């Protein structure tokens, strides 16, 4: 019998990620330029408490995506300011290595249900999977969990739009920005799905990724704000890149999340630039006046090489 979603987990995010317009969709490369009339432009961000700031962020996201090749979806949730943004929130993407954050959360949930901590082997696999994006570790945990337990976690987390990849192809799990925000929300606020200890453990690993994989949503964050990131980078059939970054930002009283998913970009580096344009625009407009970290990552020799989440012939 298929497990029923936990009500409490679902209620955590009710209304948190809003699609501002039914016609937004993902933002294609050749989308028409915004109207000169602000009122005619789609409203990507909403906030009852800070509507003017939400509008500035909406405009900044639109500007960051203007003229970029490929297709992008963006989601932002700021609990402190009551701001949520969604661009193409229902469009699904091949997850690539981003799904490793979900695999770890499901592993932690299994341990909680069994009344224990992670085993030494699980800790070793989790560390390699998140900090180095190790595919063998991800495959081991994926097989250990099985599809039934993975689906149970998705149900509990309210990640209803996520579709698990076929067989052992966890990198082909279909994800949305909205569901990735739900996952990050579980990690950054107390809930009944993950204990505080489990949440802290995963966030610590996401703050410990190797330097070569710290690109993406952390770009342009304010000095003193702590980042927690998981990225994915996958070309299908040697081209058609899927490059994603999910990030949570805490410290200095902050608690906000940014998710950017992309596909069909001409290269990995091009997609990273797109993601970092969006991220820096969001950070800057959420934190006006604060000094920001350098917003553009230095290209790494490992770029343009697949994260290996899906075999090249699949």
UniProtKB/TrEMBL annotation:
Biased composition, class Polar residues, residue ranges: 290-308
Keywords: Signal
GO molecular function, one term: beta-lactamase activity
Superkingdom, natural source: Bacteria
Bilayer-spanning residue ranges: none
Family annotation (InterPro entries): Beta-lactam/transpept-like, Beta-lactam_cat, Beta-lactam_class-A
Region: Disordered, residue numbers: 289-314
Signal peptide start and end residues: 1-31
Protein name: Beta-lactamase class A catalytic domain-containing protein
Organism: Actinomadura namibiensis
